[in-house]
Prior knowledge:
Blueprint: H1 3-18, H2 29-39, E1 50-51, E2 60-64, E3 67-76, E4 82-83, E5 86-87, H3 88-102, E6 108-118, H4 123-140, E7 144-152, E8 160-170, E9 184-187, H5 193-203, H6 219-229, E10 233-237, H7 243-255, E11 258-262, H8 270-279, E12 293-296, H9 298-309, E13 318-324, E14 331-334, E15 339-341
Helix pairs in contact: 3-4, 6-9
Bound molecules: magnesium ion.
Amino acid sequence: MSVSDGDARRTALQAHEDRVLMKHGAGGRAMRRLIEETLAAGFADMAVDGIGLSAFDDGAAIRVGDQWLVVTTDSHVVKPVFFPGGDIGRLSVAGTVNDLAMMGATEPLGLTCAVILEEGYLRSDLEKVHRSMLEAALEAGAPIVTGDTKVMGRGEIDGIVLNTTGVAMTRHVVSDAGLRPGDRIILTGTVGDHGIALMAARRGFGLDADLRSDVAPLNSLIRAAMAAAAGGITAMKDPTRGGVASALHEMAQKAGVGILVREELVPIRDVVRATAEILGLDPLHIANEGKAVIGVAAESADAVLAALRAHPLGADAAIVGECVTEHPRKVVLDTGFGRRLLAEPEGEPLPRIC
Ligand code: MG
């Protein structure tokens, strides 16, 4: 390598570090670092009576009297906008309703919706997106109560971007950091469906293969689980970007416990497993939009599982593992043949998944 080659490479690396890259939106360590170093700086130190920005939870919980006001916000840039099993409209309502539910707030008071459109966007597509939002909002009992609309020039944005914010009150706030040794880990259903369906749609295959996103508002499911748990739920998280692997790692790290997962108990649809294999992806690393990871005290686990399975969105729910004192902050996969560390993904391997 000549001196000028070296200089060019250093300049390129420098430029790389000066710019935001796709990995910074992938929901993993790179995104977290960017947020900590820039967007959250200062705000994370400001006093909040409850769960604030520094917790990096699904939303914030602010104490109001003897209750908690839960607030969460989410932007949606999914590509394609219409995909098997849903579209950006359903996703934008379900995503925000689910982040509220993951904090124990299953009765949304209202959502906001900000829409940014590209000049030339088809009105008929906008009407389809609106219909999906309305259907999902009715399903979740989550009215959209205010919003904002902006239009940008052709090429200045890719079609449509939606942002939704949700607010809800709860008496029992649940964080994603509360796991304790002995707690059972429950998955509310099959993993990888959303990301694999999107990837297959982008590649133009699997369209007849029953690959569908699982995108759904989970608040009624979580309400049933919380009622059955009688206070026994210790942590919840929706395994979106980075999939179940990311969610488990975050929960293990925040709580300082180890998590042991029995691979054979993880529900995965055959078509998802097969398609993931073709794509070279691990379903445990792939985004879900209608599933929850629930940590529950051992004595409440069977009751929660029964309540989940009695709900149409929880028919495939399973207890897949438990929290242990060994290997704190790590996730160990028992494959049936042996045990190995489950790798912590850098983030979602597929861009623009939600
Ligand atoms: Mg979340």
